[in-house]
Amino acid sequence: MSKHEYTTPEVTELRRTAKSSIAQIVLHGLNRAVINHESDTTYKVVCGDGTMEVDFDVIDLKPGVSVTVPAGTPYQDEGCLKLLAESVPPFNIAAIEYLD
User: Fold this and answer.
1) What CA–CA distance (Å, rounded) separates 50 from 71?
2) Sign of the four-CA dihedral 82, 88, 90, 94
3) Which residues are bridge partners to 95 per DSSP?
4) pTM higher than 0.85, yes or no?
5) Nearest residue to 92 via CA among 28, 26, 32, 16
6) 13-47 burial, b for 16+ CB within 10 Å, e for fewer?
7) Cα atoms found within 13 Å of the Cα of residue 98, Cβ hemisphere only
8) Which residues are CB-neighbours of 93 under 8 A, at least 6 positions away?
9) pLDDT by position in tens, the chain (length 100)
């Protein structure tokens, strides 16, 4: 994972149920490396491009690409992207561990 100047993504929750949540994420730059200890999250690229490093594998992101990050897996994304993120169970900020 990279150590650079980080950007805070813009996150808008679109839906939340007892079983899952869906959020829109807009990122311009490098996001912090994290582990979500509670939720499996599937990210789908709506527009833009970038990369996501998942458990030390780098995945190219472009419209239509989906990436699933299992709970407990380190990941980090960067680029100019709009993503939809579905988390099962629903996203819980208290379950996030920042790695830097």
Assistant:
1) 22
2) negative
3) none
4) yes
5) 16
6) eeeeeeebbbbebebebbbbbbbbebbbbbbbbee
7) 7
8) none
9) 445 689 999 999 999 999 999 999 999 999 999 999 999 999 999 999 999 999 989 999 999 999 999 999 999 999 999 999 999 999 999 999 999 8
